[in-house]
Design a protein that fits this description.
Radius of gyration: 18 Å
Shape: elongated
Largest sheet: 5 strands, antiparallel
Oligomer: single chain
Number of helices: 4
Length: 164
């Protein structure tokens, strides 16, 4: 299940973004079979692929791996938020935490908050056409538990050159 949509809103440039603004990205959920299928290919630890081992483990059920959790969040962000940006490129993830497991059959809601928009530098001089966009993304389950919190970093364009 995925309730995200590709946004039809106009493109957002660096100067359009407001620090503290938060977007809801939609919801998603996974089945146990989807968790197992993903983990068999990318992270075949017993807690992700073996029901008996998972039931005896700390979570009592099969849980999704970090890569699966991140991919679910990324899928929502890539349909709703990122297409709206005047994006040059993704630059990385500053921080990634998984304080609670991705559980099957649970609805997860995603949000992204704008934390900072910082002009880029070439050597000692700021560029006039690009900025680094710092955000905080969260995936929260239907019981209010944070499943993922991350700080993605993207390079975006200014609509008009900045004079500094």
């Amino acid at each position: 299940m995925n309730t995200s949509r590709v946004s039809a809103e106009p493109q957002l440039y660096a100067e359009d973004l407001t620090v503290g603004a938060t977007d809801e990205l939609g919801t998603t959920s996974v089945t146990e079979a989807e968790i197992v299928e993903f983990a068999q290919r990318f992270d075949p630890l017993p807690m992700h692929v073996d029901r008996a081992a998972a039931e005896a483990g700390p979570f009592g059920v099969i849980v999704g791996c970090a890569a699966h959790t991140l991919s679910l969040y990324s899928g929502l962000a890539s349909r709703v938020f990122v297409p709206r940006l005047a994006l040059v490129a993704g630059k990385g993830i500053e921080r990634l935490r998984l304080p609670n497991p991705l559980r099957p059959g649970v609805v997860h809601a995603a949000t992204i908050e704008i934390c900072d928009v910082v002009p880029r530098f070439r050597g000692d001089e700021p560029t006039t056409d690009r900025a680094d966009l710092h955000c905080v993304g969260r995936l929260i389950d239907d019981l209010g538990r944070v499943v993922l919190v991350m700080e993605p970093l993207q390079v975006i364009r200014y609509r008009t050159p900045q004079h500094r």
